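hi! just following up on the protien thing from before. the input was this:
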Amino acid sequence: MAKRLEFKPAPKALNQSEGARERNEQRLREAPLQHSDALLSLYQLLQQMHDSGTLDLLRGGLFAGGKLAEEVSAALVQPETIRGLRNLILLGKSMAGIDPDMLERVVKSLPQPQEQKQMTDDKPPSVLGLLRRMFSSDSRRGLGIALGAAAALGQATRPQPKE
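and the predicted 3d structure came back as:
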């Protein structure tokens, strides 16, 4: 059986000695001068939060209090939310396995918007031009990766035997 714990709250600091109260008042008077840089930075942060509407959002969240927590918790237990969060975690794990330097090279090598527009405005490439391009070492390397991904996708979507 559980043991009862005795709890005695600490005495309130209202009965401070006169000397302690004066020291605290003196420290409060000196604080704005000693921490002026920090206070100015805090005021700037408050102004930015006000300008962006973040303060209003926080005030609304505090005002809504329990109702907001109820709505969020009700949304979090929905099956589609759970699936979405699981998918997001899986995507994050798979993205963590990609070398950022390689991904940067891939992204930089993709056609830029100006080049994409030019590609659609130009005459389409000939079949011979496409074949020549397809047999380049870079195209074969890219096709190998794409075919590997397609094979993995096909394997993952294969019907599972019923147990």
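The chain has nine helices and no strands.
The mean pLDDT is 85.
cheers
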